[in-house]
Amino acid sequence: MSSRSIEGENPLYLPQAKTYEGCAGLGSCFYVSENPIPPDTKIELEIVWYSEVTFSNNIPISQMKRKHGELVEFLFRECNFLNGCILMTGTGIIPPDDFTLRISD
Predict the structure, then answer these.
(1) Which of 7, 44, 56, 58 could bond 17 through an S-S bridge, CB–CB 3.0 to 4.6 Å?
(2) Residues ≥6 apart with Cβ < 8 Å to 47
(3) pTM (whole model) above 0.85
């Protein structure tokens, strides 16, 4: 989940737009592959609002600007993770500009 109003004000505020109370929910389980994920694997995003699909799209991971190995190298340059970690990259799928959450959504 992201705050479009914060992202729109200044692209340098991207971290603040994505890290706030109640965001970045994870679970209920994770599968860790022993092999690299094939580049033709697709990420799918579906937004369901009041039981209705209001947005749906997908994108292959080959379209990512940086490859997984490069992202992991950056992550481990400055930090050690004794028990592993989760690297969240975003999806590359962006709903239309007029799509936004409202108070109480």
Answers:
(1) 7
(2) 53, 54, 55, 56, 95, 99
(3) no
Structural domain for 18, as ranges: 1-26
Q: 8 and 37 share a domain?
A: no
* Alpha-carbon gap, residue 8 to 5, rounded angstroms: 5
The most distant pair of C-alpha atoms in the chain lies apart, rounded to whole Å, by: 43
DSSP-assigned letters across all residues of 7-69: HHH-GGGHHHHH-STT-----S-----SSPPPTT-EEEEEEEETTEEEEEEEEEGGG-SS-HH
Q: Are 103 and 70 in contact (CB under 8 A)?
A: no
